[in-house]
Amino acid sequence: MYLVMLVAGLSFCTQPPSRAKKMLVWEENFDTLRADRWSKIPRGRSDWNRHMSDFDSCYALRNGKLILRGLRNTYLPEDTSRFLTGGVYTKDKVGFGLGRLEIRARLGAATGAWPAFWLLGQGRKYPEGGEIDVMERLNYDNFVYQTVHSHYTIDLKINNPPKGGTGKINPSDFNVYAVEKYADSLVFYINDRRTFAYPRIPTAEKSQFPYAEGDHYLLLDMQLGGSWVGKVKPEELPVEMEIDWVRFYRIK
To answer: What is the spatial distance between Cα 123 and Cα 102, in angstroms, rounded to a whole number?
Structure first.
């Protein structure tokens, strides 16, 4: 198992990342889909994974990019799901600690499309291990959501400090989505523009900031439908997103 282990105790960074000293320690350029790094996300019962499939047409490698698709299910008569979606994650294979994670991607759009890049606690239960949503886009929006979730925000329903923000994107182009994980804060970016930050605060609730307590694994997935994004228009499918690369840096 490959783990990216970084030094704890980094302070909250308010300067642009271009001024911070970064050292690249891990990258994925998708020349191939390496089995020691990635697994296909299995189907589940939640909105986000109810259509996940290992069907080959949901995945492609094209010109050094990973393609993840959402399809109408006209291919697998034995599968009762109306749709098929592709997603990969680094669960139990690669973990990311403190540092800066970047993903460059172009997002396709369709009614009911919900592409996402996010992190969950490696080897920890949800929501105790924390969730970091680096990017979620709905339908044809020209902005994305960047959010954090934990026992503090979900079970205790505390939104102090605010748990999320949004940032504009160029919907037809590639954009770079990033999060910097520090011992005392999470800082989000789009195209090197700081969009949102979530700090550790003094509180009796130990679950307020679980993000520095261990590594997180990365999920990249094309999702379709659900209570948040709404109904899918099948005639607008297939929809796909292109992921150019993933990079992880140590920050000094």
So the answer is: 22
Closest by CA position to 90, among listed 144, 151, 27: 27
**Which ranges constitute the DSSP H helices of 44-172?**
151-154
- The closest alpha carbon to 75, from 94, 92, 53, belongs to 53
Residue closest to 173 by CA, chosen among 226, 104, 239, 122: 104
CA distance 115 to 231: 15
Phi, psi of 211 (to 5 degrees): -80, -15
Separation of alpha carbons 134 and 122, rounded Å: 16
Domain ranges of the chain: 2-8+19-251
Q: Where are the alpha helices (DSSP H) in 34-183?
A: 151-154
The 10 Å CB-count burial string (b at 16+, else e) for 70-87 is: bbebeeeeeeeeebbbbb
Q: What is the DSSP letter of 52?
A: B
Maximum CA extent, the chain: 54
136: nearest Cα among 196, 223, 240? 223
Give the residue among 118, 117, 142 at the shortest CA–CA distance from 130: 118
Class of the CATH domain delimited by 2-8+19-251: mainly beta
Contacts of 235 (CB under 8 A, 6+ apart): none
* Other residues' Cβ atoms within 10 Å of the Cβ of residue 177: 23
DSSP code of residue 169:
-
Is the pLDDT assigned to residue 204 strictly greater than 70?
yes
Per-residue pLDDT reduced to its tens digit, 38-73: 999 999 999 999 999 999 999 999 999 999 999 999
pTM here is 0.93
Tokens of 5: 């282990």
